[in-house]
Structure formats: C-alpha cells, structure tokens
Amino acid sequence: MSDQTALFKQYETDYCNKSTDISRKINTIPSLSGEQRRIKTAEIENDIKSADVVIKSMDMEARSLPPSIAQPLLTKVKDYKADLTALKEQMKKAQSASPVGDAARAELGLGGDYYSTSAGQRERMLTATQRMERSTQNLTYAKETLDRTQEDGANILTELQRQRETIERSRNTLQDADDNISKARKVLSSMARRVMQNKIIMAGIILFLLAGIGIILYVKLKK
C-alpha cells in the first residue's frame, strides 16, 4: 500500500509546505504598503494557484487507486480543499485591511503566538506527519531487519542440521569400518591358528618320517 500511495504523499507534503508558506506570507500583508504590498499579494496569489494545482493532482492520484485505498485519501483531499478556501478568505481579509501595527494585527487574527495561527498549526501538522512517516519507515526497516535475521537464523539451523546429518553418516561409516576391522582381525587370528596347527602337524609328520627312516637304517645296518 505504501508504494501505491507514495506519489500522493509527495503531493501532500508539497501542499503542506505551500500552505504553511502562504499563511506566513498572508500574515505579513497588513504590515506592508504600496509596491511591497502589491508584489507580496501577487506572489501569494501565484502560490495559491500552485497549491490548487497540487490539490487537483492529489485528487487525480487518489481516484486512480483502488476504492479501499482511495476513500481515506479523498477525505484528506476534501480537507485540503477546505483549508485552501480558508487561506483564500484569509487573503481577502488581509488585502482589505489597512496597514496596521502589532495590536491591530492581533485583533485581525494575524499576529500573536505564531503556533496559534493557521500557519503554525499547519507547520506542526506537517512536522507531526513527517515524524510519523519517519517512525513508520524506522518500524518498517526494523521489521525487515527482523525478517532477515529470522531468515538467516533459519538458514543457519538448516546448515547445522545438514552438518549434523553429515557427521552422523561419517560416524556410522567409521562404526562400519570398525566392525569390518574387527571381523578381519578375527579372520586373521583364525588363519594364524590354522597355520600354526598346520606347522605343528607338518613337524610331527617330518619327525615321524625321520623316525621311520632311522629305524629302517638301523635294521639294515644290523644285518
């Protein structure tokens, strides 16, 4: 949704900046006279036209979005139109007023505490909106960081599981090798015993043959 309304938010910020600037300029009119007043009035009228163009752009952008998103944006557009109308009325009031001092300006609602004026209120609204957008961006960044961290954690767990399976397979392979070595040792031991037995039998046979030969020679020699 944030991507869909990004252009609208740009228009909105642009309008808030323009309306704040317009209101500040209107507050200066009662303290001006002659050519300075005429120049400032023409400048404000151009700014009002520019602000009106921005509102129309906001309206067109809002209407191009899906209804569920467009509805709250169109409500904002309606509020901004009312705000611009109020600025125009404030402009007329300032134009009709004669050059006055601070006391008279306060009576006209054009002086006093800046943040109690419409310009000050707009500036505070813009500041609050920008602060909220920064907070939203920070939360979005934190959420993305958390998602990446969770994804990295899941990948690490998967890798650890894979390594564990590899170690298990290696251990099973070593166990099989140990079993095979034990079997081979038993076979070799059995073969060694048989070889020893065969040697003993061969030695017995040789002794038996030698004894027989000796007896035969003894008998022949005795004759």
Automatic annotation (TrEMBL):
GO CC annotations?
endoplasmic reticulum membrane; ER to Golgi transport vesicle membrane; Golgi apparatus; late endosome membrane; SNARE complex
MF terms in GO = SNAP receptor activity; SNARE binding
Coiled-coil stretches noted in the UniProt entry, renumbered to this chain: 157-187
Which InterPro entries does this UniProt record tie to the protein? Answer: GOSR2/Membrin/Bos1 (IPR027027), SNARE (IPR010989), T_SNARE_dom (IPR000727), v-SNARE_N_sf (IPR038407), Vesicle_trsprt_v-SNARE_N (IPR007705)
UniProt record, GO biological process:
intracellular protein transport; vesicle fusion
Q: How does it sit in the membrane?
A: Single-pass type IV membrane protein
Q: Where are the transmembrane segments?
A: 200-219
Q: Extract the SUPFAM superfamilies matched here.
A: SNARE fusion complex, t-snare proteins
Q: Where is the T-SNARE coiled-coil homology domain?
A: 124-191
Q: What broad class describes the main subcellular location of this protein?
A: membrane
Keyword Membrane appears in the UniProt entry: yes
For this protein, the record's Gene3D superfamilies field holds: 1.20.5.110, t-snare proteins
Record bears the keyword 4Fe-4S = no
Keywords linked to the UniProt accession: Coiled coil, Membrane, Protein transport, Transmembrane, Transmembrane helix, Transport
Any Pfam family hit: V-SNARE_C
Name where it's found: Prevacuolar compartment membrane
- State the similarity comment: Belongs to the VTI1 family.
UniProt xrefs under PANTHER family: VESICLE TRANSPORT THROUGH INTERACTION WITH T-SNARES HOMOLOG 1A, VESICLE TRANSPORT V-SNARE PROTEIN VTI1-RELATED
What protein name is recorded for this chain?
A: t-SNARE coiled-coil homology domain-containing protein
* Source organism (scientific name): Chlamydomonas eustigma
